[in-house]
Amino acid sequence: MGEGEEKPSKGFLLREASAATPRNGMLSRALLDDAVTRVTLIGLAAGERRAEHSSRFPALLLLQGGSCEMHLAGDRVELRQGSLMRLRAGLPYALLAREKSSLLLILLKVDEERWVP
After folding, report:
1. What predicted TM-score, i.e. pTM, was given to this entire model?
2. Residue 112: enclosing H or E segment and its boundaries?
3. Is the torsion defined by CA of 31, 32, 33, 37 positive or negative?
4. Tell me: the pLDDT tens digits for 24-37?
5. Which of 11, 42, 54, 91 could form a disulfide with 103 if both were Cys (CB 3.0 to 4.6 A apart)?
6. pLDDT tens, 35-64?
7. What Cα–Cα distance (Å) separates residue 50 from each residue in 36, 45, 77, 97, 109?
């Protein structure tokens, strides 16, 4: 187990869940990857673009710091610190960091058809 990580009574606690924001490009750090969940910290430099992509799993995206412009299947959404976005599996999206930004991406490894009413 890494420094700052704990597994209290069948749970998982990471005390330092913030990403360093690089001067250029992107930094990505996997915090947890098990049969149910993948949690990734992402740091984006100001002006960094993430090309349109999607995931086969539904996800939650939390903007921890900074601001980003998100493009979701043709719609533009402004994300600010504290914004939480739910993404359906297969939904194409792209990101542009308006300033240095830190994000937490949580992939839920479930069959969305059975999970979402």
Report:
1. 0.81
2. helix 112-115
3. negative
4. 889 999 988 999 99
5. 42
6. 999 999 999 999 999 999 999 999 999 999
7. 25, 11, 15, 9, 22
**Angle in degrees, CA 31, 112, 73, rounded to 5:** 85
> Element (H or E) spanning 85, and its range?
strand 84-87
Report in angstroms the alpha-carbon separations of 20 from 45, 100, 107. 10, 9, 20
How far apart are the C-alpha atoms of 80 and 16, rounded to whole Å? Answer: 21
Please write the tens of the pLDDT for every residue from 2-25.
455 555 556 666 656 666 678 888
* The token pair that represents 29 in the structure block: 């750090």
**Enclosing H/E stretch for 78:** strand 75-80
- Domain architecture of the chain: domains with CATH: 27-111 (2.60.120.10)
Amino acid letter at 31? L
